[in-house]
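Subject: Predicted fold for Protein GrpE, 174 residues

User T.R. writes:
Posting the sequence so we have a shared reference for the thread.
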Amino acid sequence: MTTSNTPPQEPLSPDELIAAVNSADDSKVAELEARLAEMSDAYLRAKAEVENIRRRADDDMSKARKFAVESFAESMLPVMDSMEAAIALPDAKVETVLEGVHATKRQLAAALERNKVIELNPPAGTKFDPHQHQAISVVPAEQEPNTVVMVLQKGYSIADRTLRPALVTVTAPK
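User M.O. replies:
I've generated the structure tokens; pasting them so everyone works from the same file.
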């Protein structure tokens, strides 16, 4: 048994006891109400912030969809200018027109390359890939089965996604 060095307290009267409990409850209630108000304010601010972020994200997505091809279109403008320049000279010599066509093709290839459009032109002997190639015909040949013999039309891809498969002739299985 332990003894305390503090003198014993006199018992509280019932009225004093009720007043002490009520004052403790009132201060606790006031503290909880203040905390509730603080948390409600924080919740409303967080909710408003989330709504603002969602609205900004929606606006950004809308603008991205609307202007997604802007860079590509900008790359195509010099190609269009070259085509219009060629048309503007109806009496030009065939050699001059051909030279202009080659220059326009180089501009177009550069624009496609800048925009990550990659040419699919598999060399003969390449293993047939149905994700990048479309077999137009199957022919007997002296190379491995299911390999490309000849490309009939180049294909193109963008960001590892095939825009148009290369049209190819493949070797027949043995």
